[in-house]
Amino acid sequence: MVTLEQMTTKEEQIICDMCKKEIPKQLPNSCTPGYAFIGEDKKICHACCGEMDKKTMEEHDRIALYLVKKDGKSFITNWPGTLSIRVSHIREGRHNIAGKRVTVWFTDHRNEQWYGINYGDHTQICHCRKMKGRKE
Ligand SMILES: [Zn+2]
User: What is the pLDDT of residues 23-33, one digit of tens each?
Assistant: First the structure.
């Protein structure tokens, strides 16, 4: 016999479409959901989100990530923070339209060299591309 309470709990369960593990609906002490949407209605957990972002980097040589500062150091991360790469070099410049242009360089999980560009002061989005063997 299934009680109403059990049914409600079951309904609220979210299963990751990639690893099939149960995802907490909300992270403790935060209003961030414990999952990300991919495609139309697929949900994946934060860990898989990091794996997927790595795969995107391997397959497409370009990805949009976030440029964040922590303890005075700069990192390239995905939104749940399950992918986090220390920036090895950073250069700030001016941009006609956005005002500020920040270029960063970093090394990915396969030891490939990447650079990323972030425009303006109002967004952390960093457009990253793999460097094709050459040094800039
Ligand atoms: Zn997962």
Answer: 877 666 666 67
Nearest to 102 by CA among 81, 85, 125, 86: 125
Query: Each residue of 69-80: pLDDT tens digit?
Result: 989 999 999 988
Give residue 95's domain range. 62-130
Distance 49 CA to ligand 1 centre (A): 7
**Beta-bridge partners for 116:** 104, 128
Distance CA 31, CA 47 (A): 18
Q: How far is the CA of 18 from the centre of ligand 1 (A)?
A: 5
How far does residue 43's CA lie from ligand 1's centre (Å)? 8
pLDDT in tens, 39-64: 778 899 999 999 999 999 999 999 99
Look at residue 6 and tell me if it is in a domain.
Answer: no
CA of 50 to the centre of ligand 1 (A): 9
Instruction: Judge whether 75 lies within some domain.
Output: yes
What's the structural domain count of the chain? Answer: 1
Centroid of ligand 1 to alpha carbon of 129 (angstroms)? 26
